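A brief tutorial aside. Many learners find it easier to grasp structure tokens once they have seen a single protein encoded end to end. The record that follows does exactly this for ATP-binding protein. Read the sequence first, then the structure, and try to relate runs of similar tokens to stretches of the chain.
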Amino acid sequence: MRAPNAQPQPVGGLARRLAHILTTRGIDPTSTPQGGPEPVPALLAAESRIPARYRGATADHPAVAAWVREIAAAGRPGPGGAPGIAQGRSLLIAGTTGTGKTHQAYGAVRSLIGAGVRLRWKAVTAADLYADLRPRPGHDGERELRDLARCPLLIIDDLGAAKYSEWTEEITMRLMNRRYNEMLPTLVTTNLGMADLRAHIGDRVASRLNEMADKVILDGPDRRRPHAAGRRHPAAATA
Ligand SMILES: Nc1ncnc2c1ncn2[C@@H]1O[C@H](COP(=O)(O)OP(=O)(O)OP(=O)(O)O)[C@@H](O)[C@H]1O
Ligand SMILES: [Mg+2]
């Protein structure tokens, strides 16, 4: 049995994997990080949950970086002294295809963890969210909705991209209303302009988002197109 004040430790395969990654990066896995705020194992564990394409993402947009600082500063100390995510403002990142919305969202998670914030977070695309929550035998969608509603930081990627129905509007409303009521930070990305988003998610969700979220509009080129400014090839990134 674990002593009441002991911190949860990575176990088994995860611990071995982390030790291996640290060793390959020239870091002694048994050493304690010195001098900097970055909890390396926490960042590595989080990186393993971030999709490969965004594992090195940086929140380099000034407004996203400012939001990260605000959330980090509002954290309250948790067990072990590291600040945990508390109530905070949400962030809506809007922009056309390929402007870097998902990159900024995962970059924000990485920055928060790098800043030493203890972070329970989930990321889901709106389309996957509705697919996961669809009523089906043997699956407790209500429980999953509750978990998402309570998660300290939730990323909803591509809001407005899934096919609309009254049911999707109701699910979005129930999820966002709970997070709005509890003032939990939610990071939303969308390809839609505000008028189209309002039409897609309904007035009541749009009204809540409007109050709870800071807005960032990414208006650059599609970074997936060859020669787009700032496009980074994985090979170039590691060269
Ligand atoms: N600031 C950045 N620095 C380097 N690479 C970036 C940056 N922003 C985005 N990219 C890269 O550009 C590509 C497109 O970015 P991303 O997937 O975040 O766009 P998006 O706006 O989410 O697109 P969509 O609307 O289609 O979902 C990805 O390969 C991503 O890694
Ligand atoms: Mg995206």
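Self-check: The chain has a mean pLDDT of 83. If you spotted this yourself, you are ready for the next section.
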